[in-house]
Amino acid sequence: MSNKEVKAALKSARDAIRNKEYKEALKHCKAVLKQEKNNYNAWVFIGLAAAELEQPDQAKGAYKKAIELEPNQLLAWQGLANLYEKTSQTDVKGDLADVYQKLLKLYESGDKQKWYDVCNKLVDLYHQEKKYLEVSETWQKLIQMKQEEGAEKVELHQLWKKMIQLLKDSARNQDNRTQQLLLTAFEHAVSSADTVPSEDHQNLYKDFIQCLSKFPHETARLEKACNDMMALYPTVSYPLEVLCLHFVQSGTVSEEAMQCFSRLLEMDASSGPGIIGFGVKCLQEKKYKEAVKNLTEGLQKTTQCPAAWCYLAEAQMKIHKHRDAVQSCNQALEALGTSEDPSLQWKNHILQLKAEALIKIADADAADEAIKALEQIVDASSDPVVLAIRGQACLKKGFMDQASKISQELLLSHPDLAESHALEGLIHYSQKNYEEAERSFLNAIERNAETAEYHQYLGLTYWFMSDETKKDKRKALTQFLKAAKLDSYLGSVFCYLGNYYRDIAGDKSRARGCYKKAFELDGTDEESGTAAVDLSVELGDVDTALSILNEVTQKASAGTAKWAWLHRGLYYLRTGQPSKAVTDLQAALRADPKDSNCWESLGEAYLSRGSYLTALKSFRKASELNPELTYSIYKAAAVEQILGKYESAIATYQQILKKTEDYVPALKG
């Protein structure tokens, strides 16, 4: 076959392809290859025809042979690209990307429009494959080409926006290079916008700031973007809110942060981040109740801020609301779980705080929960403070050997740590080894004199210590006063001070003040509440006693606050208000249905009211619960006598006299 015949055969092959006679085309190409086995066009035509005849492997082989012969010729590369684009096989996508890369090189110095078309296809392919670095680098190259061509600002702006669109939804999972290219795209987009200010530009800025807030290492950039947006849109609160939450989450509240909180609250007094910021400020200023109030209010509006929940837990711990603190820690951990940047440092801190709160709760299960929380702390074994908390949890559970082992290890490895000595002191105190406990607590105070709890336990140690300190409780008083001065929210220490002033100093007025303070700080402290009421009555201040009881009973849910209902019921009984007494004594019995004395008092109230049958039932119930209650048995007989049940009354009187021959009321009856 001559050169002329080869050309004629190739022309025939081309015509056959044009006429969709693909098998005919293959014949012509094979004839050419018999003569010229390295004929580039013949191999390309075979690739085209085989592709149309749905013989992809043959087509691929033909194109690859052509490329081998002429690697810088376009036709075979274009054919291979078309072949890969049509196939549904996922394993060819990597090969297709390589083909597009080659086509970009071949088009670069020639047909720019085709270069852009292939570049778009390559970016789409990378995006499908979630290869975001390749997406960003390829798209940036496209923008660079456009810039070199002198593209208009409006077109470039749209290209930067397209790059943002391609990358922003996956920002969290990108490597640093891709993140930087995304942020660069945002910076170009916000600076190249045609109409400023405008709603589109404002939304673009919001997206930019939201994206920056996902990257903890981009603090300076975030602050700049927020400040730039505030300068352009001074009435929009969004950048200020992001900045406030950023400052809260950063864990350090600077003067700049304070100004930011104030500015946001001036703009919008109901802004969640602003109120949270103010709460953090109160916490720093040791205004703990205000901090709790503001942080709680702010978190009702902005729930997904782990740091704010953590600050709330800290404030609640300061005022000894331990159950509330545990709840806040749980909320913090939940928010951290959904957070886009779960910080290990925050998580460890929250878990430690939760464990500390749980140890202060009297429930049996709380110590178990505390140990579980501590087990979740990363590198907990290397933190001596965490180990000391674990030791306290073991002590609370009654695992004395484990607690002692931790204490001994800490004293050896960290002898200068106050917590090491405090744990040792708590172990000795629980075993009533008061002299050793005194030494340990003094060592703890020597290393940290600002912890109220150490002074409180040293005071209790002196209180129970020996005959000498039992007579002279002034050493205990000194420590209780120090504890109260260091922590004015520590209710228990005011209760101990009340005990001192009532039982040792005989100062009822001062004792009453201490009990009242203790009860105001901890409404669940029945001992202090009861003592405050009793002393108020003794001092002739019935109004104060009643105001305490009224406040407790108003807040009490069914089956709770027995002591308050009982006290007020007895007061009403003494002052001739039997109907009110009945109501309160019934409420007390809902809390404790097996209190025989309470049943006896309820019988008296019914009797005073003239409800004889219910009085009789109440007295009988009291004597059933406690057969030694002679008075209840007598009152039951007296009521039977009133009701005309003489035989029954006589039998009951005789029953009493069998046990107590000289019981005068029964003899009279």
From TrEMBL:
Cellular component, GO, one term: Ski complex
Chain segments annotated as coiled-coil in the UniProt record: 3-39
Biological process terms in GO annotation: RNA catabolic process
Transmembrane segments: none
InterPro entries membership: Ski3/TTC37, TPR-like_helical_dom_sf, TPR_rpt
Alphabetical UniProt keywords: Coiled coil, Repeat, TPR repeat
Intervals holding TPR repeats: 40-73, 418-451, 562-595, 596-629
UniProt-listed Pfam families: TPR_16, TPR_19
Domain of life: Eukaryota
Protein name, UniProt field: TTC37 protein
Higher taxonomy: Eukaryota, Metazoa, Chordata, Craniata, Vertebrata
